[in-house]
Amino acid sequence: MKIMKKADFRSGYVVIVGKPNVGKSTLMNRLVGEKLSITSDKPQTTRLSIKGIFNDPDCQIIFLDTPGFLKPRYEMQHRMLKQLTDTLNDADAVIFLTDKPSFPTDYDNELITMLKSVKRPRLAIINKSDLQGKITDLEIRERLTQEFEEILFVSAKNGDNVDKIIPAITKFIPFGPPFYDTDQLSDLPMRFFAQEVIREGVFRQFSQEVPYATAVLIDRYTEQSDKIVIEATIWIERDSQKPIIIGKNGTGLKKIREYAEKQLTDFNQAPTEIHLWVKVKKNWRKSPSALKEIGLTD
Ligand code: GDP
Ligand code: MG
Question: Closest by alpha carbon to 216, among 188, 195, 237?
Answer without folding.
Answer: 195
